[in-house]
């Protein structure tokens, strides 16, 4: 049975403040937990319900009601781990650096990390107000890809100033992504869901690019930030590999 | 002031059961509500807080606490409308039909509708267990694009049998999307977030396609369903327009 102290300690990690204080975070779900263990993350606690006890033999068995109590998600998973937050690495210019200028939605941010991993982008630079990497919903949506993508939170403009490279940003009025070869190393800036790219970040951009819309009658004003990133990264990889 | 009866009637619409019973749904946010009004959706109720009263002059002014009480979202917007659900249209084979085989996440589904709109895909066929189009989070994530994309819920295999066309599905072991010209009219099947495309749906697929991953060392097993759809639709439109 889970003690009150442990239950309280784990549920406190639903909040960023306590994650930072304790340097711990929650990961839920068989795939995510397995991948993080395989990647060498250190599990402070590991809990499982009966169904996955065999797979996680070292885990503490708890019942579903207890799991529900410590879970940070709407639907509790059969396995939950509390991992130590690894030491932050410092930012170093890479082939492609994806830049998140204040993305707020955990699902979007997790999908973006997964997308970076898919396309071999190993670095994500985030404005300090971007959603926390260790938010349980981000951890879940990243599906383990967070183990392979370095995520740094620091001032965007300042970072670009000290480690310069071409800076691309997606805008409605930009030039079609299909009419140019994107250089590397480079930065690719993605804006916040509601407000797009901030004006102080926009000043760093050396080339505005856009994704052609299809059909003149469409009134869509923008794409979801992660879908836009998907199309641009796929195109960068397609042209660079001569497909 | 909002009466108890109205408050109760509106909050009941947070649930699919009551949306279907009353044939009403909630839309929140300035952009979404404006677009649906412009598209001719009939507002049964329209509420605004002081900040946007000028823009929605016909709306009933309520205070922020009241708005929070009726809102279905974690962060209430300054405007909320209750619209009548338009009459369902019947499915008719179109140039490209995107097929959702049981997508569950409202954010993913809303982003998919927005993506279809962007690429001029006017029809989305959904397995009956796909998340409800009128779920308030889907409405919000679709950003008004739901007014321009027909969404039908019915048996997928049966529909394809009666209105046949080439059927594409994204799989890890499929052929690269860059090595082929996708024919139209066609169906493009997207699977559920956790379980992918169901085996009974898979039987309808005439061609398995895949998105090339970059870098051999990556262990990512899949892309988020909406990002995968984004890359495939962008590629269909790029090749068909000779970009």
Quickly describe the structure.
Two copies of one chain form a homodimer. Chain A has 243 residues and is α/β, with parallel strands linked by helices.
List the helices and strands and how they pair.
The structure is a homodimer of 243-residue chains.
Chain A: H1 4-12, H2 16-22, E1 24-28, H3 30-38, E2 43-48, E3 60-61, H4 64-70, E4 79-84, E5 96-101, H5 106-118, E6 123-126, H6 136-142, E7 150-153, H7 156-162, E8 167-176, E9 186-191, H8 199-202, E10 207-210, H9 225-240
Helix pairs in contact in A: 5-6, 5-9
Domain tRNA/rRNA methyltransferase SpoU type (chains A, B): 96-233
InterPro entries (chains A, B): Alpha/beta_knot_MTases, MRM3-like_sub_bind, Ribosomal_eL30-like_sf, rRNA_Methyltransferase, SpoU_MeTrfase, tRNA_m1G_MTases_N
Protein name (chains A, B): RNA methyltransferase
Name of the CATH architecture of the largest domain in chain A:
3-Layer(aba) Sandwich
- How are strands sequenced across the largest beta sheet of chain A? 7-6-5-9-8-10
In CATH terms, what is the fold-level topology of the largest domain in chain A?
Alpha/beta knot
Question: Which structural class fits the helix and strand makeup of chain A?
Answer: alpha/beta
- Radius of gyration of chain A from the CA trace? 20 Å
E-strand count of chain A: 10
Amount of beta strand of chain A: 15-25%
Total of DSSP H or I helical runs spanning 4+ residues of chain A: 9
The domain count of chain A comes to: 2
Low-pLDDT segments, ≥5 res of chain A: none
H/E element string of chain A?
HHEHEEHEEHEHEHEEHEH
Greatest chain-chain contact: A-B, 44 and 44 residues
């Amino acid at each position: 049975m889970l003690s009150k102290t442990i239950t309280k300690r784990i549920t406190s990690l639903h909040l960023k403040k306590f994650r930072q204080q304790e340097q711990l975070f929650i990961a839920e779900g068989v795939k995510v937990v397995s991948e993080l263990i395989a990647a060498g993350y250190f599990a402070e606690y590991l809990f499982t319900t009966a169904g996955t006890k065999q797979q996680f033999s070292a885990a503490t068995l708890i019942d579903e009601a207890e799991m529900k109590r410590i879970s940070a998600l709407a639907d509790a998973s059969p396995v939950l781990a509390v991992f130590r937050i690894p030491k932050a690495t410092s930012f170093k210019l890479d082939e492609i650096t994806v830049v998140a200028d204040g993305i707020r939605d955990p699902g979007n941010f997790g999908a973006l990390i997964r997308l970076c991993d898919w396309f071999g982008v190993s670095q994500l630079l985030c404005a300090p107000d971007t959603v926390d990497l260790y938010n349980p919903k981000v951890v879940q949506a990243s599906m383990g890809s967070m183990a392979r993508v370095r995520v740094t939170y620091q001032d965007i403009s300042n970072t670009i100033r000290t480690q310069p490279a071409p800076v691309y940003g997606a805008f409605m009025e930009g030039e079609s992504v299909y009419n140019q070869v994107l250089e590397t190393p480079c930065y690719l800036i993605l804006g916040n869901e509601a407000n797009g790219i901030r004006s102080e970040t926009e000043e760093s951009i050396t080339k505005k690019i856009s994704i052609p819309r299809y059909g003149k009658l469409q009134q869509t004003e923008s794409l979801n930030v992660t879908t836009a990133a998907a199309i641009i990264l796929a195109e960068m990889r397609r042209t660079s590999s001569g497909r």
